[in-house]
Amino acid sequence: MDKAALASALGSPSAFGQSQFALVRGNAFEARVKADGGAELLRLVHEKLDRGAEPPADARVPDLSATGPEGRTARTALALREAAGAPGTWTLLDHPMLALDVAGSPAFLEPDAVVVHPDGSWTVVEIKSFPMLDGSADAAKVGAAARQAAVYVLALERVAARLDPAPRVRHRVLLVCPKDFSNLPTASAVDVRKQRAVTDRQLARLTRVEDIADALPEGVCFSPGLPAEELTAAVEAVPATYAPECLSACELAFHCRARSLADGAVTSLGRPVRAELGGLSTVEDVLAAARGEYGDPDDPAVAALRRAARLRTEAMATTGAGTTLAGTAEGARTGAAEGARTGATGVSEVRPGCR
Ligand code: SF4
Q: Does residue 4 line the site of ligand 1, with CB under 6 A?
């Protein structure tokens, strides 16, 4: 489903994705890299990954246009097969379309480019608009690009496996970025073997979509066209465990955060806090456990909370402050809300609210 449309229909539109300015800048940079039949892009592939091959002059750039994702996927597979039958030449596939089975459903993927080398091997090319300064770029952004490229490598391997002999899909991809703060392209070869292996294992372990669908109540529907009330009930029928990490990964984050805060769920404070609190899942439970009204005293989390509450009471008595723990529930909720708003994940960020 289109989660961005669903989030808007629920009244919590996502602030997810790139700004319009970044998109325009990214598209302009990609067009520059691929200008003149991809001459600069192919030069970078030759320089960084295949210096032993003939320089790429007169590369083939097949037309991949077709109707719909299935049509484009079939057209890409045909172009790759034709390239395999033309050894000794360079071929550039601009925005090919690949299909990958994810939990039993096809996911359509669109790498920026795939290059077929004269030896018949295939390379994934990712073009990003973050700068490469002095030959290195932001490690987090490079990591994200490597994970993305690894998925393309896996999808290409599925296409290659259907050919005889199966072409080699290279596990070093080419990352193309603007050089320093100019818009001149520069590139670096990135080894994605580790990311490929991790993604492959994750894909194999995913619960199949049919099994997830079977667990849903009969007739539940997530169409953004439904009235908001009906849609909210449908979404609530599916369990969700919001954490601040969702803010950078899921279009429904604002909706789930609001529900999580309304329920007083400790996961709004981050996964490390949830892990520390064991079976105590709400702020109310945590405070009740600290007051000795709830929880198993042998549970290490409950014992730690009671000890902290005792120490706090002693400290408050010493300073003459009179606030009781019961009176801090609202403060704790405020702290939780603040922690969730800022994405803070540690207990220390919540303490000012608790006091
Ligand atoms: S819990 Fe997080 S990942 Fe799951 S739907 Fe909500 S925002 Fe998305």
A: no
Same-domain status, 154 and 199: yes
Atom 7 of ligand 1: nearest residue by CA position: 253
Distance 253 CA to ligand 1 centre (A): 6
Count of structural domains, the chain: 2
Q: Can you say whether residue 292 is alpha, beta or left, with left for phi > 0 and alpha for psi between -120 and 50 degrees?
A: left
User: For the segment 244-302, what is each residue's pLDDT rounded down to a tens digit?
Assistant: 888 888 999 999 999 999 989 998 888 888 888 988 989 999 999 999 999 999 999 99
Atom of ligand 1 nearest to the CA of 253: 7
Can you give the residue range of the structural domain that contains 107? 34-205
- Ligand 1: does its nearest atom lie under 6 Å from the Cβ of 222? no
What is the spatial distance between Cα 180 and Cα 130, in angstroms, rounded to a whole number? 9
**Domain presence at residue 307:** yes
From ligand 1's centre to the CA of 249, what distance in Å? 8
Find out whether the beta carbon of 240 lies less than 6 Å from any atom of ligand 1: yes
| Residue range 51-73, pLDDT digits in tens | 999 999 889 999 999 999 999 99
Cis peptide before 165, with omega less than 30 degrees from 0? yes
Q: Report helix, strand or coil for 189.
A: strand
